[in-house]
User: Fold this.
Amino acid sequence: MRQAFIVSYDVCEPKRLRKVFKVLRGYGDHLQLSVFRCELSKRELVELRAALGNVIHAGDDQVLFVDVGPVEGRGSTSIAALGRPYTHPERHALVV
Assistant:
């Protein structure tokens, strides 16, 4: 079962910041500056945490994971917007 997560990060150094962004881009949808929405299996969550752990400096940087529930349930409706409405990004296959 896949869970929806809001992942937010605060990284002090620009080079690490770009690396964190690139890692997260492979796992979820970029919502705002340092915020992603990720739909992850348990295995993908472990992989993502490990990948981010290899990039950040634990004493200086922070990554927060907010579990908003199963994708099929609450996870699909847990984001509410004020102002411009939130629309779930459509995923398209890209053939290279």
